[in-house]
Design brief:
The protein is an alpha+beta fold and 554 residues long. The chain is 18% helix and 32% strand. The chain has nine helices and 23 strands. The strands form four sheets. The protein has a ten-stranded mixed β-sheet, sandwiched between helices. Strands 15, 16, 17, 18, 19, 20, 21, 22 and 23 form a nine-stranded antiparallel β-sheet that branches. The chain has a two-stranded antiparallel sheet with strand order 1-10. Helix 3 links the parallel strand 6 and strand 7. Helix 2 crosses helix 3. It is globular and about 75 Å long.
Length: 554
C-alpha cells in the first residue's frame, strides 16, 4: 500500500498584497508580493519613496505557517515597503526546484528590481528565519550596493545546507525528511514515514514513491552527505562588511551556526563594528520558554491572536536595527551590541558575548555525580548500544522543543543511558556562554555515536533539556574527546540541579549507528557495541560551564 502523502497547495494572495512576477537574469520569473503602507499613493512621487524589507522563502509566501501578511502589516505601519518572494522552483515561482544553488544571483536580481520601482528609495534590508535567513547570506555574497543590512534568524551562513545536518559525523535524520518534504518539487508534502524499516533508506524510498517525484535529497543527502554550492561569487564573510543582526534561540537546534557567525565576524576588525547579537529563549518555531509547555490558546501555529502576541517581541529588535542601518535614522550607539533573554530572569544586554565577568565552572564526573572537585581515584563505567533497542527521542519535533517541553527523566532509568547529576543548588546559578565537555571515552566497535544533553532537574524530578552536543568517536580504548554543547543564557533556580545525560543513540532525531562499518542508511542489521567512560586521575572527564554572578547588571 502506498505511503499516504498530503500535498499543500498555495494559499491565496491576501488583499493587502499585490503579486508581481519578477524576471531574473535568465528569464525565470519569481512570484513576488508587494505590501505598501495603508493609504500610500504611488503617484505622490520621490518624497514618498520607502526603504524595503525583503523576504525570500520556499514555504509559500502566502501560507498561514509564515504569516507574512501579519509581519508585513507590522513593518508597513513602521514606514517600510515589504517584498516577499517564493524562491525559484517553489509554489508560484518558475524554474527548477533545487535548494541554495540560485539564491545568490536571484537575491541580487530581486534587490535590483526593487531599486527600479517608483515606491523604492533604493535601500533594502533582508529578514527571515531558517532557509530565508540563508537567502540573506546568499544575497549578501552577491554584493548588491542597495543591500544595507541583513537580519538572519535561527540560521547560519553555512548552517543549514546538507553538510550542516552531518554534525561531527552524526547525521540528523530530519535533514533527509526536510529535503523530501520541501525540495521534491514546487509543493510541500506531509507524511509519516515508517522509520522501523531496515535498511532505513527504504523508508525514504517509500516517501519518494508516495510523492511521485525524485527528491533532490538523493543527489546530496542520501546515502552520502555532499556540499551544495551556495556562494558562486565567494563567501559573504570575504566580501564588503555589512551590518548584521544575528538572531538566535537558546532552544533552537540551529543555534550553533548563528553563534558561529557572530563569533567569527565579531573577531574580524572590518566586520566587528557592524555586528549585533540577539538571542531569545525560543526554539526554531518561535515557542518561548516563558510559555512552555505552550497552552492551545498561545499556540501561534493555530491561533491568530497568538501570532499578534508574539510579533512585537519577534520584530521590534529588527525594526530598531533597520531604522538605523536601512532608514538611516539615529546612530548605531543606540543599539545594544548583545541582547539576550536570560531564562527565568528576563532580558539582558551586554557589550560582548559571553558578557564581561563570565568565568568557567568545571564540574567533574564522579560516580553518578557532577562535582567541583576532581575525584580522588580512577573509575570506569560502560554502557551498551543496541541498534535494535535505540534510546528514543522523546521530543516529537526537535524544531518545536518548547511547545511540549518534554520531561526526559524517563530515559534516565535505561541501562544504556548514563547520568551524572549535581546536588540541588541553594542559590541561583546563572549560565551565560558556551557549554563544553571533555570525556575520556572509547568503544569496542569500529566507531560509535556519543550524545550528550545537559538538563535542568526540578525538585519534582522532571528533567528538561537545556543544551546538547554529539559526535562520532573512533574505535579504540578510552581517550579524551571534546564535545561542544552550544551556548545558553539561563538561570538554574534554587532547589534545581543539573544533569548530564550520555547515550549512544537518539532516534529518530538522529540516524542510528549500526555498530558496524556499514553506511547507516544502508545497514539492514546491526551489532551491539560497548562504550566505556573513564573518570578521575589521568582520565578525568568533566563538564565546563560559563557562568556569571547572579547579581550582574542587565
Amino acid at each position: 500500500m502506498p505511503l499516504p502523502v498530503h500535498r499543500a497547495e498555495p494559499a491565496p494572495v491576501p488583499d493587502s498584497a499585490t503579486q508581481v512576477m519578477v524576471a531574473m537574469r535568465d528569464g525565470v520569473r519569481l512570484a513576488t508580493d508587494l505590501y505598501l503602507p495603508p493609504g500610500r499613493d504611488d503617484r505622490t512621487g520621490r518624497a514618498d519613496r520607502l526603504p524595503t524589507a525583503l523576504v525570500r522563502l520556499p514555504y509559500d509566501k502566502n501560507s498561514r505557517y509564515v504569516f507574512m501578511d501579519r509581519i508585513a502589516a507590522y513593518l508597513t505601519a513602521r514606514g517600510y515597503a515589504v517584498v516577499v518572494q517564493d524562491v525559484r522552483g517553489k509554489f508560484r515561482s518558475e524554474g527548477e526546484t533545487v535548494p541554495f544553488v540560485h539564491e545568490a544571483d536571484d537575491g541580487y536580481d530581486t534587490i535590483d528590481w526593487i531599486t527600479r520601482q517608483d515606491w523604492s528609495d533604493g535601500r533594502v534590508g533582508m529578514l527571515g528565519d531558517s532557509y530565508y535567513g540563508a537567502t540573506q547570506w546568499a544575497a549578501a555574497s552577491a554584493g548588491h550596493p542597495a543591500l544595507k543590512a541583513i537580519a538572519p534568524r535561527v540560521t547560519g551562513a553555512d548552517g543549514i545546507r546538507p553538510d550542516y545536518w552531518k554534525d561531527d559525523g552524526v547525521i540528523q535524520l530530519f535533514g533527509a525528511l526536510y529535503y523530501a518534504a520541501y525540495w521534491s518539487d514546487r509543493w510541500v508534502y506531509e507524511f509519516e514515514p515508517d522509520l522501523s524499516r531496515r535498511p532505513l533508506v527504504e523508508a525514504l524510498r517509500e516517501v519518494t514513491d508516495g510523492i511521485g517525484t525524485r527528491s533532490a535529497l538523493w543527489d546530496f543527502f542520501v546515502p552520502e552527505v555532499k556540499p551544495l554550492p551556495a556562494f558562486p561569487h565567494g563567501h559573504p564573510f570575504d566580501g564588503p562588511p555589512l551590518p548584521v543582526l544575528h538572531q538566535a534561540g537558546w532552544f533552537d537546534n540551529c543555534l550553533q551556526p548563528s553563534i558561529n557567525d557572530w563569533a567569527e565576524l565579531a573577531a574580524r576588525p572590518d566586520w566587528a563594528p557592524l555586528q549585533y547579537l540577539h538571542v531569545d529563549s525560543i526554539d526554531h518555531e518561535n515557542y518561548h520558554l516563558d510559555d512552555a509547555p505552550v497552552p492551545p490558546e498561545l499556540d501561534h501555529a493555530d491561533v491568530d491572536a497568538a501570532v499578534d502576541r508574539l510579533l512585537p517581541r519577534h520584530l521590534d529588535p529588527l525594526v530598531e536595527f533597520f531604522d538605523v542601518f536601512v532608514k538611516g535614522e539615529g546612530t548605531p550607539e543606540r543599539l545594544p551590541r548583545v541582547r539576550w533573554h536570560h531564562g527565568h530572569v528576563g532580558d539582558r544586554t551586554a557589550n560582548s558575548w559571553p558578557p564581561a565577568g563570565a568565568r568557567t565552572l568545571r564540574l567533574h564526573l564522579d560516580g553518578g555525580g557532577l562535582r567541583p572537585d576532581a575525584p580522588a581515584g580512577e573509575a570506569a563505567v560502560s554502557w551498551v548500544h543496541d541498534p535494535s533497542d535505540l534510546v528514543p527521542s522523546l521530543v516529537p519535533d526537535s524544531f518545536s522543543a518548547l511547545r511540549d517541553h518534554i520531561d526526559e527523566s524517563p530515559l534516565h532509568d535505561r541501562a544504556d543511558v548514563l547520568t551524572f547529576t549535581t546536588g540541588p543548588v541553594t542559590a541561583p546559578l546563572d549560565l551565560a556562554g558556551p557549554v563544553r565537555a571533555t570525556l575520556t571515552v572509547g568503544t569496542d566497535g569500529p566507531s560509535a555515536h556519543v550524545y550528550l544533553k545537559l538538563l535542568d532537574v526540578s525538585p519534582d524530578g522532571a528533567a528538561h533539556a537545556l543544551v546538547r552536543g554529539q559526535r562520532l568517536i573512533p574505535g579504540g580504548p578510552p581517550a579524551p574527546v571534546t564535545f561542544d554543547l552550544t551556548h545558553t543564557g539561563y538561570r538554574l533556580r534554587p532547589g534545581h540541579a543539573l544533569r548530564l545525560h550520555i547515550a549512544s543513540s537518539d532516534f529518530p532525531t538522529y540516524l542510528p549507528h549500526p555498530g558496524t562499518e556499514e553506511n547507516p542508511w544502508l545497514a539492514a542489521d546491526g551489532r551491539t557495541t560497548t562504550q566505556t567512560l573513564r573518570t578521575g586521575g589521568e582520565h578525568d572527564s568533566h563538564l565546563s560551564l560559563t557562568v556569571v554572578d547572579a547579581a550582574s547588571p542587565s
